[in-house]
Amino acid sequence: MSPSDLVHHGVQYTIPSGQQKPTITLDELKDRKIEYVRIMWHDMVNHVKSRIVPLEYFEKLLATSRPGVPVSKAALGMVFLALAPGFG
Fold it and tell me: pLDDT, tens digit, for every residue of 20-70?
């Protein structure tokens, strides 16, 4: 199996034209007096994770070359309430 075979998996979802979700700008968030932004995602085992950050931090985050939030290495090896063997 070549490395290029590994990238052709899963389903690519696209939003049909005319059904774009509305977006909001940072200025609109400030105008609405929004103070915090909740960033949510699903981890590798489909658990919902989130970070709540101040709007000022979120604005700085978006200005970076690779926006993202830190995830603890330990969180990737958790099994129930303990680390998997070999993690840590």
Answer: 777 889 999 999 999 999 988 887 678 888 889 999 999 998 888 877 777
Using alpha carbons, list the distances in angstroms from residue 69 to 8, 20, 45: 27, 26, 18
SS3 31: helix
Question: DSSP states of 41-81 as a string?
Answer: EE-TTS-EEEEEEEHHHHHHHHHSSS------HHHHTEETT
| Rounded Cα–Cα distance for residues 84 and 88 (Å) | 9
Nearest one of 14, 62, 15 to 37, comparing CA atoms? 62
Structure tokens at 78: 């958790």
Q: For residue range 79-88, what is the model confidence (pLDDT) as tens digits?
A: 666 666 776 5
Task: From 79, 70, 29, select the one nearest 49 (Cα to Cα).
Answer: 70
